[in-house]
Amino acid sequence: LFYLVAIPAVISIGISKAGIGGTGGIATPLMALVVSVPQAAAVLLPIICVADIFAIYAFRKTWDKRNLIIMIPGATIGIVVGTLGFKYLDPAAIKLIIGSIAVVFASLRFLDFIRQKATPPPTEPSVVKGGFWCAICGFTSFVAHSGAPPLNVYMIPQRLDRTMYMGTLAIFYTYVNYAKIGPYWWLGQFHITNLSTSLILLPVVPIGILIGMWIHRKVDDVLFYRAIMTLLFLTGVKLCYDGITGLIS
Q1: With the C-alpha atoms ordered 171, 24, 220, 126, is the resulting torsion angle positive or negative?
Q2: Mean pLDDT of 143-150
Q3: Is residue 121 within 8 Å of residue 248, measured between CB atoms?
Q4: Tens digits of per-residue pLDDT, 212-232?
């Protein structure tokens, strides 16, 4: 049962790195169906770090420097807070918060589309907004590898070219994920069971990467962002459900 859930989760990570950013947000919720959130996060982190290498290579020439100068310091703050508070956090409450952000943001965008409201002009990189949402992203990514909802609240309104968007995410998430290795080790998350499970699942990563690259070549910008919003909404609903049931039980 574990591997029936874990293999699609790893494939989704590969797709997110090479095809549609944010797809990997469903990986931890999927894994959390069969193991605890901390264990799911620990098993997935080495896999994500390997997938990041593919993403960096694929999009090494297309990234937004202005955004990264804002995003990386913000994420660092979130990672530090996540590290210090990891043992005291309620995973269910964190899931509910992340899920609520995703559902509200995606729903508002969907309502604008239904009403045929004029699309506002693309936003510019912002130190205040970027710093805030990327700090939240660093925190939620540390706790549950679910950084996509808060990050996309900041990134999607900019409507970057999809290759520029993917390249910026590749650099950003590589920094975030490798920055988590030391704290995860310090917190005792990298024991032999988790690491051996990660190693078994690693060969699945290239499958997701290949699927993601195919999607990226075939999908235009409009469909690309609609797909991200749909995935963001569905992931948010799943996180809300997990959070509510976790708090009740």
Answers
A1: negative
A2: 78
A3: no
A4: 888 878 777 677 777 777 877
For the whole prediction, is pTM greater than 0.70? yes
Task: Calculate mean pLDDT across residues 20-27.
Answer: 68
Average pLDDT score over the chain: 84
Burial of 187 (0-12, 13-18, 19+ CB in 10 A): middle
